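Notebook, bench 3.
Goal today: get a predicted structure for S41 family peptidase from Mariniradius sediminis so we can plan the truncation constructs. The sequence was checked against the plasmid map this morning, with no discrepancies at the termini. Length recorded as 348 residues. Pasting the sequence as submitted so the record is complete.
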Amino acid sequence: MKRLIKTSLFASLFVCGLGLVSCNELMLGEEPSQGPVSTFEYLWSTFDDHYGLFEVKQLDWDEVHAEFSTKVNDQMGADELFDLFSEMLSRLNDGHVWMVKPNPGFRRFDSGPSFPDGTFDLDLIRESLSEETFFGPADNPLVLFGKFKNTNIGYLYLDHLGQAPGFYEDHISTALAALAGTDELVFDARGIEGGDDRSAQIVASYFAEERKLYMKTRFKQSANPGDFSDWILWQLAPRPGAYTKPVVLLTDRGTGSAGETFTLAMRQNENVEIVGDFTFGAFSDNPKWELPNGWIVAMSTGDFRDQSGISYEGIGLEPDEVVINTPEEVSNGTDRALIRALSILLEN
């Protein structure tokens, strides 16, 4: 990366609150003209330099420039320009690409797909637990674990993976020590929208029996299509107190970013079966840039693949068994994915 300037705490919190994953630094450029044409060229060239998924998306960015550069002019108003930029960025179909026009007249555009809300309700699950322990606010716990009523099946839930790795070393080891006497475990990764890939790696390692490669990542370096960093190899390594009994991992379309790299890692653990819906399909880190006119844009700078070199960007990870909750079912008190997970474990 170049021209990296860390934002103030307030600005960082504002920008981070707008994205799918936890905060990356805001990338600021030199001060070009703020006119629509100059801002368009800055936006296009910033993606040309740093976007890591043109190959994966099979998108010719030069052709996109040829199409959209003829539509921009310096007489355009802010909303018209925002609509044009949104149309261009929609070609990426990338859940980690978004753009915000701050107030006055706040607007936000998200390039990726949208999925129904309400397919998971933690409160519904808490009603079925005979006991629970949680860290964080009672109404929105960061970590929650317990045991299902009338069973010896444990339950573990994470809200996100955005805390520092040490947080998970402390709390996952505590949770698994308390659940060590259970026969099986449901790990609920639904709604883990993102966080730190290192934290995801640590949590998944608590379920590993052997060292395994599960992911490799690289990052775009310049406008040259082949100019990437060397591959970074991500491995699981078993940790003391690992839970190696049967585990059902629940995923859904709300499982994204670091939640998906976590799922990539958990797939390598032979004691884990995955049930639910496909994950979101947005894996890469997504730093944020400020455009010359003050708008903020985020993009995927990395190319994240599984251990075999397969990218699931824009697709998501398919569970071993697809069970898709509907908002109507959940609002009526039924979590079919959880019911199926418990059924699988009780059959063991």
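The CA atoms of residues 221 and 227 lie 5 Å apart. The chain has two domains: 9-110, 122-284+302-347.
Flagging this for group meeting.
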